[in-house]
Specification:
By secondary structure, the chain is of the alpha/beta class. About 35% of the residues lie in helices and about 15% in strands. A five-stranded parallel β-sheet has the order 3-2-1-4-5. Helix 5 links the parallel strand 2 and strand 3. Bound molecules: S-adenosylmethionine.
Length: about 210
């Protein structure tokens, strides 16, 4: 049984550095391919539950075009952001807490012949300038930030006025020990930071 009052003791940077130091697991890939079937995002190597149709939705909803900049925070091996960048023509900046993820992401971009920048940063401190990105995405990563509030304030700071933020994360009511505290609903944090909520899907997804 998860102890919700337990302090955050896990060093997530260390965990993810180790995770991405190894190649993507073929067993995990086979399981995801079996579960998602035709919706499995072939060649993306996600470390998340993202599907092909969700990537298409990211590409549609971020509303970016060639010449504009798309940011993927918690980008992992970079596959999801590179997919959306290729689909929209926008330049990609990927940010992750783990250097090993960035190494894998740079290698992927080079193999794909795609121009992208991958740099170390965190949700609450991306290191980017004010209003410097045209749109933002994040796939199944926001749950790892210790402060959702600080993350949305940072998103608002670096996103140009009118720019879109599209993300997936989990609303947990209870947590395995060691995970940062979660929130039952991210919308109040987004709205308090100045975002206008255009759409939210809360609850079981992906046909659950
Ligand atoms: C479940 S993985 C998702 C990776 C990627 N979005 C994908 O779809 O493959 C979560 C990612 O969040 C990153 N992460 C964890 N804590 C972070 C933080 N505080 N700031 C930025 N990224 C973080 C991890 O290194 C990891 O790559």
């Amino acid at each position: 049984m998860a102890d919700e009052s337990a302090p955050v003791t896990t060093d997530w940077r260390e965990v993810f550095e180790e995770t991405y130091a190894a190649a993507a697991s073929p067993v995990q890939e086979r399981i995801w391919r079996d579960v998602f079937g035709d919706d499995y995002p072939e060649g993306v190597d996600p470390y998340s539950f993202v599907t092909r149709s969700e990537l298409a939705r990211f590409a549609r909803d971020v509303r970016v075009e060639p010449g504009q900049t798309l940011l993927d925070v918690g980008c992992g091996r970079g596959g999801a952001g590179l997919w959306v960048s290729a689909a929209t023509g926008a330049s990609l900046i990927g940010i992750d807490i783990a250097e090993t993820a960035l190494v894998a992401a740079r290698d992927r971009a080079e193999r794909m012949g795609q121009k992208a920048t991958f740099r170390r940063g965190e949700f609450e401190s991306t290191g980017l300038d004010d209003a410097s990105v045209d749109a933002m995405m994040s796939v199944d990563a926001l749950l790892f930030t210790p402060s959702k509030e600080a993350a949305f304030v940072e998103f608002r700071r670096i996103l140009r006025p009118g720019g879109r933020l599209v993300l997936t994360s989990w609303d947990y009511h209870s947590q395995p020990v060691g995970r940062p505290p979660q929130v039952p609903d991210h919308r109040p944090f987004a709205e308090a930071a100045g975002f206008e909520m255009l759409e939210a899907q809360v609850g079981p997804l992906r046909g659950a």
